[in-house]
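Quick one before lunch.
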Amino acid sequence: MEPIGKLALPLQSRNEAVLPFKKRPRSSEQVSELMLGTVGCFPHADLSEITASEWMTIWVSLAEKYGFARLKAAVNRLKFKLDFFPKPAEIQREIDVLIFEERDAAKANATKFVSCGKCSADGFICVNGNGDLWDGSSNEERFARECKCKADWRAERQ
Ligand SMILES: [Zn+2]
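Model of the zinc ion complex:
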């Protein structure tokens, strides 16, 4: 078993021999860089050359399936969570978590209040004591009132 440290350069230079995806050289190059960077974070990683090239194939297929940015984000998170070089199953789980979080954020975004433009960002307008729009130029007393758009937005979510 060769430690992966020795593998670092050969992996890079033998990309094409190791990786069966000449069609997407750019993505495999990125993945290769990511893997080498990750090896650097786990100096005690003891991957055999065979394991490394098999995992490389898996990493590339993860990048193709979920996007390189997600693979990279998942691997980078694992660098802070794991003591050992992440196994493919661990990366897959982290990608699942990422996707779950993305969906959550998208959902939160979709239900976020957006001002109608006449009120403040949080849905308030200024009115006078009669409930009419406050005239900024006068000295009349000013009250904050919820805008109709905010009330409508709240009603929609109940
Ligand atoms: Zn409004």
